[in-house]
Predict the 3D structure of the following.
Amino acid sequence: MVLTADAAALTTIGQTLQINATVLDQDNNPLTGAIVVWSSNNPAVASVSSSGLVTAVSGGTA
């Protein structure tokens, strides 16, 4: 899997960051139809939508 996102930290409540993923097979070819499920390890600090849009909710680390 290859993840892409802006390297900048979210510093303001409400600020967003789009994360994208490309799932690869063992030969590094993109897999079509792969399902990626996004989640936050600390939803009180950062929420993430089903499309990979991360939103700062409060100060802290997620």
